[in-house]
Amino acid sequence: MTREEMKKRLKVFAVRVIKLVDKLPNTPAGRAIGNQVVRSGTSPGANYRAACIGKSDKDFLNKLKMVEEELDETAYWLELIMELELVKPELLQDLHHENKELVSIIVKSIITMRNKQNIEIK
Questions:
Q1: pLDDT for res 89
Q2: In the chain, is it the N or the C terminus that has fewer CB atoms within a 10 Å radius of its CB?
Q3: What is the pLDDT of residue 71?
Q4: What is the DSSP letter of 97?
Q5: Crossing angle for the helix pair 89-121 and 3-23, nearest 10 degrees?
Q6: What does the pLDDT read at residue 120?
Q7: Which residues, at least 6 apart from 13, have a Cβ–Cβ distance to it below 8 Å?
Q8: Residue 53 belongs to what domain range?
Q9: What per-residue confidence (pLDDT) applies to 28?
Q10: What CATH number does the domain containing 33 carry?
């Protein structure tokens, strides 16, 4: 997957998260969780874009770690929404699966960058 394809995929993911938040109930819990998931679900795309214009491989790697953390946090909030049934859980299965795939891609990129840095150091 190219960097441009990943940027687009993360943007589509962010749009889906925003649409989900608009469907959450207007309750104290719905608003609180909505605020959290919209923040964590939209930041990976912005952080990945920042990583792509990083000043060095080390900078790129550090920003990728931030993307991983935000995606992991988003998974937590999506799981909570499903368990609380704030929206029908079956409506979130695909979004949750996409979240897992994105984490997997980012983790593989982190491993690749770490391996590259280890080779350069030797």
A1: 86
A2: C
A3: 98
A4: H
A5: 150
A6: 61
A7: 41, 44, 45, 95, 98, 99, 102
A8: 3-121
A9: 97
A10: 1.20.1440.60
Instruction: Give the residue from 91, 112, 94 showing the smallest Cα distance to 102.
Output: 94
Tokens 């795309």, residue located: 45
Tokens 């874009």 belong to residue: 49
pLDDT of residue 1: 86
Secondary structure class of 88 (helix, strand, coil): coil
Domains: count for the chain: 1
Distance CA 7, CA 17 (A): 15
Q: What is each CA distance from 30 to 22, 27, 68, 86, 108, in whole angstroms? A: 10, 5, 24, 7, 33
Percent of residues in the chain assigned helix, strand, coil, to nearest 5: 90, 0, 10
Confirm if 32 and 9 have CB atoms less than 8 A apart. Answer: no
Which pLDDT score, from 0 to 100, does residue 121 have? Answer: 54
Residue segments in the chain with a per-residue pLDDT below the cut of 50 = 122
Alpha-carbon distances, residue 84 vs 14, 61, 67, 81, 89 (angstroms): 22, 35, 26, 5, 9
